[in-house]
Amino acid sequence: MPDRPLELPPRPPVPPALIGRIRQVVGDRGCLTEPQAIAPHMKDWRGLFVGRAPVVVKPASTAECAEVVRLCAEARVPMVPQGGNSSMAAGATPFEDGAEVVISTARMNRIRAVDPANMSLTAEAGCIVKAVQDAAEQAGCLFPLSFGGDGTAVVGGVLSTNAGGNNTLRYGNARDLVLGLEVVLPDGQVWDGLRSLRKDNTGYCLRHLFMGAEGTLGIITAAVLKLAPRPRDVQVAFCAVPDVAAALRLLTLLQGRDGPSISAFEYMARFGLSLVLKHVPGTTDPLAGPHEHYVLIELSSPRPDAHLKESLEAALAEAVEQGLVADAVIAASDAQRAALWKLREEMSDAQKPEGGSIKNDISVPVSAVPAFMAEASAAVTAALPGIRPCPFGHVGDGNIHFNLTQPEGMARDAYMAEWDRMVDLVNAIVRRHGGSFSAEHGIGRLKAHTLAEWREGPEIALMRRIKAAIDPAGLMNQGKVLPPG
Ligand code: MLT
Ligand code: ZN
């Protein structure tokens, strides 16, 4: 377990009278106090932290949310905004002292508008990402944010953490997909920035402050999201490559031939694939024999006559000739395509039955991925013989989930006690390559210390001044992103 303590100042318990006033605003349905009802909101998705709060509030509208925040602010009670509670950095989990009110966006889940002519969609914060994808598809468009957890994660959460996912190399991160925001500010005022303009040079770009802030500056309650044309030709290949450097040369080859069509370029090591095949029912190895390294390639185009299959076949033939691909299969149907993606998307869950897993969501310049992988694997293996690196992820944008599965036979707790030592080792290598210790999962509680250690010069001081300007009482998501003090 990460064990650098975050020293929050002592905080008084939430006054029962405040809970009563909140109940008057949101009704019984929106004010959960029963231990069983609030339990799922108290622990983070990774199972690293279990917090405590006397109440989970579920406002049904922006107006209700604003009034709840106003009441908490007036009582000077800290608040923890929560979306789908699938943060990978414990960004939405309350602390253990029971001093916070959790405000969940779960009931604010309407799609307010779809505007295909403007290629935009307005969704409330509690909309599940998958529901936004479906609504966009019904309108003949694509909402391109896509990742394994998109059936659980919600709009407010993915924007607050600036999530990435599988299609970043083509469409950008979550913040690149936003035209406007509506935010409940820490004093309960509502900022209506729900503009759906593609050009709007009117001073500081406030919406970008709230994306990546992980609820420390306010609660995102709705967003105008950018859509893309719906792909009508989608091709997926699963390829064995001799090494990570070959994977990148393959990417370069594809970019040279048909760069704009690449919508995903994902890496997997044999170890990760073997865990999926072992633990996820219904999965099979798509290739005849085992290989150490794999990439999943997706090409897509809105043109039904884009002939991407032929293009992919030709590219892979050239790659085989150059020794960049050892074996490959191209999905021949929607079902096969889904089966290949499943191998990649189950990668996170498939690690769980193997015991402790130490997580590193890192990024380096794409060109530095092979060196990073070699150096990091050597460093952790030398430091803890038997450790099982499970690297996978979005190699096309330089984001590797350099996860580390515990040695076989080691006690889970003893392994998890190595968290900080292993993460520091990996981060030192990331730093040497000019990378980031947090690529797409955010900072949350898990990495608040690391942020302060990594950012030099005026950066942290500037962040603290922004925090103080927008949340002068410091009530929003205390101890997340910026460490106390
Ligand atoms: C993914 O890309 O599957 C997730 O971001 C990874 C994770 O669970 O670390
Ligand atoms: Zn990822």
Number of domains: 4
Q: Using only CA atoms, what is the Rg? A: 23 Å
Flag low-confidence runs: none
Number of strands: 19
Mean pLDDT: 97
CATH-assigned fold name of the largest domain? Uridine Diphospho-n-acetylenolpyruvylglucosamine Reductase, domain 3
Q: Biggest β-sheet: count, sense, barrel? A: 8 strands, antiparallel
Indicate the structural class: alpha+beta
CATH architect. name of the largest domain: 2-Layer Sandwich
* Terminal-residue CA separation: 23 Å
Q: Hetero groups bound?
A: D-malate, zinc ion
- Characterize the quaternary organization of these chains: single chain
Q: What is the strand content? A: 15-25%
| Helix percent band | 25-40%
Shape: globular
Could you describe the 3D structure shown?
The chain is α+β, with helices and mostly antiparallel strands and 485 residues long. The protein folds into four domains: 16-107, Uridine Diphospho-n-acetylenolpyruvylglucosamine Reductase, domain 2 (2-Layer Sandwich); 111-229, 2-Layer Sandwich (Uridine Diphospho-n-acetylenolpyruvylglucosamine Reductase, domain 3), CATH 3.30.465.10; 233-345, 2-Layer Sandwich (Alpha-Beta Plaits); 355-442, Alpha-Beta Plaits (2-Layer Sandwich). 33% of the residues lie in helices and 19% in strands. It is built from 17 helices and 19 strands. It has helices spanning 16-26, 35-38, 62-74, 129-138, 155-160, 168-171, 207-210, 244-258, 270-279, 308-321, 334-345, 347-351, 369-383, 412-416, 419-432, 448-454, 459-470, and strands at 31-32, 56-57, 79-82, 101-104, 111-115, 120-124, 141-142, 178-184, 190-193, 219-226, 228-229, 233-241, 262-269, 293-301, 327-330, 357-358, 361-363, 388-394, 399-405. Strands 12, 13, 14, 15, 16, 17, 18 and 19 form an eight-stranded antiparallel β-sheet that branches. Helix 1 (16-26) runs antiparallel to helix 3 (62-74), helix 8 (244-258) packs across helix 10 (308-321) and helix 13 packs antiparallel against helix 15 (419-432). The structure holds D-malate and zinc ion. Residues 88, 147-148, 347-348, 359, 361, 393, 401 line the site of D-malate (MLT). Residues 147, 393-394, 401, 440 line the site of zinc ion (ZN).
